[in-house]
Amino acid sequence: LLFARGVLVVEGDAEAILLPALAKLLGRDLTRHGVSVVNVGGVGLGRYARILQRAHPEHGVLNIPVACISDMDVMPDCAPEILGLVEGADDPKWENTAQRKWRATRDFGGDDDSRLLGLEERRRLRKANDEQNVKTFVAGRWTLEYDLAFSGMARELLVAARLAAKDDAIHAARETHDRVIELAMTEYERLASSGMSAEQISSTIYALFHRKVASKAITAQYLVDIFEQRYRGIVVPREGLEERLPGYLVEAITYVTSRLEILHEQHQPSQQQSERQTP
Prior knowledge:
- The chain has 12 helices and 4 strands, in the order βαβαβααβαααααααα.
- The protein has helices spanning 13-25, 45-49, 79-82, 112-126, 144-165, 167-171, 177-192, 198-210, 216-231, 247-256, 258-267, 271-277; strands at 6-10, 35-39, 66-70, 134-138.
- The longest helix is centred in the middle third of the chain and has 22 residues, at 144-165.
């Protein structure tokens, strides 16, 4: 944290495992850029980010980009039923907003405009500690895993989750990678052709983590393998990958790796200076 040229503050193991691999595939290797990933193991990212904020910024600020990666923690309205939290849209559990720990889109207003305002306010509160060079990048919808699935990585995430669920069996040679992948691909094709919406498919996949079928950290490890096998050999790996990733992850990686480019530009002589130095 204290000796980095850039800092990514994350909430859990999955982000800590996944982000360095994604950054490398996007041509922004965190090690090369001197970026540390700080896993705080929960929420409250702002407490750690404030360490790199000056108490008196009028005397200067630290030239260290700090990106806090935060979940939005708002489910799509279909998710509570899929996760078994409610039974239908009229379940009385929907009304206990003060007691329940989860939130869904419908909790933020009865019409589209009021919901949009409510969600924007929630996003603003997530960014309450943004000052100086500290910025918070909030998930577009719910959590890392859900947003990955919704943005275009649903098949990859499902395969990785099924591999994670069978990790012990694979290492004990009771299952094979190929068989688990084959079954997961069939499962995904069934979901994709079921007529379910993208929200329902993504929520169904996320249910594997909610029900502890698969570990988020082990899933992230398998997901890194999948991404590296698919994109490592491409000359410009970010093409085909960047558009399938949640935008907030790409923006955060770009931000924390920007300092090296800025310093490089500052130390490059101008064209006029180069001409004067030319013998």
